[in-house]
Specification:
- With about 290 residues, the protein is of the alpha/beta class.
- About 20% of the residues lie in helices and about 30% in strands.
- It is built from seven helices and 15 strands.
- It has a seven-stranded mixed β-sheet.
- The longest helix is centred in the last third of the chain and has 14 residues.
- The N and C termini lie close together (about 5 Å).
């Protein structure tokens, strides 16, 4: 699936898709409540009100850079709390290559935050050692986010993620730590969006008078745009997460903006009185 924002092209490369079994993430998003939002169906939910979600990377191509935004779960990882996320063996890098994005053609890897399902393909296992999966890329981490997890990865699952998917990048000298409002280049800039994690960042794309927003996990699902107070159980600060959603989507409510979430597809935000709606846009299939 691909979208364009001016001269910038965005391609979604899916690692894992799920239907349902998401109540542990969004406990308020019951089937009945989702059925009250018919604009979600069929692209983002089933007729029965079960949520559709994915784990994916976004390849962002600007006139000067090829950027991979977030890197999913990865292969061969252990110590994850979700059993099926351990010891995975999938051809994700081969899929990227087949889509035209060989790992050595990527110059930047940009992580919106450092949770397990956004950093896994930062590294791959080679001869018993974790090495950068994108060997020529600079890896861009938010400084606030990195320093938080460096100091607070005390739980075993958090330690496992940091040690196999973040620390090896730093040890290899491939990491750039940036402020949460950093401007990466002419088209790409960061927006601080804390709440899901302490240093979470969203990505604003502007090109030729058009704009797009890569939200990361500000919202796990577009239903949270209609219900801004529906915070995720994975949010580090649920109240701050809700406030961040309201501020972020309010900021872009009156301007046509392509919105792509860390776990859902695309559309634009429209203000209707005091409500926000997510409106699906046509996109091309890659």
């Amino acid at each position: 699936m691909q979208w364009k924002v001016g001269k910038v092209k965005i391609t979604k490369v899916v690692e894992l898709e799920t239907v349902g079994s998401t109540r542990f993430i969004l406990p308020l998003a019951s089937n009945d409540e989702i059925q009250k939002l018919p604009w979600l169906i069929p692209h983002f939910a089933t007729e029965e009100g079960r949520l559709k979600m994915s784990i994916h990377s976004l390849v962002v191509e600007t006139p000067s850079r090829r950027i991979v935004v977030d890197t999913g779960l990865g292969n061969d990882k252990q110590g994850r709390n979700v059993p099926t996320w351990n010891n995975r063996n999938t051809p994700f890098l081969e899929m990227m290559t087949a889509a035209g994005f060989a790992p050595d053609s990527v110059d930047t890897v940009l992580c919106t935050h450092l949770h397990v399902d956004h950093v896994g393909w930062n590294t791959k296992l080679a001869n018993g050692k974790w090495v950068p999966a994108f060997p020529r890329a600079r890896y861009v981490f938010g400084r606030t986010e990195y320093e938080h997890w460096r100091k607070h990865s005390t739980e075993p699952d958090k330690q496992a993620v940091f040690n196999d998917s973040v620390k090896p990048i730093v040890d290899a000298g491939r990491a750039d730590l940036i402020p949460s409002d950093h401007r990466l280049n002419d088209e790409i800039s960061m927006i601080p969006t804390p709440g899901h994690s302490p240093g979470h960042m969203s990505i604003l794309i502007r090109s030729d008078g058009e704009q797009g927003l890569l939200t990361g996990d500000v919202a796990h699902h577009p239903c949270q745009m209609a219900h801004l107070g529906w915070s995720s159980t994975a949010d580090s600060d649920q109240a701050q997460s809700a406030a961040t959603r309201a501020a972020l989507f309010g900021r872009f409510a009156d301007t046509p903006t392509l919105v792509i979430g860390g776990h859902f597809s695309a559309g634009h935000i429209r203000r209707e009185g005091n409500a926000f709606r997510f409106v699906a846009l046509q996109s091309s299939q890659s």
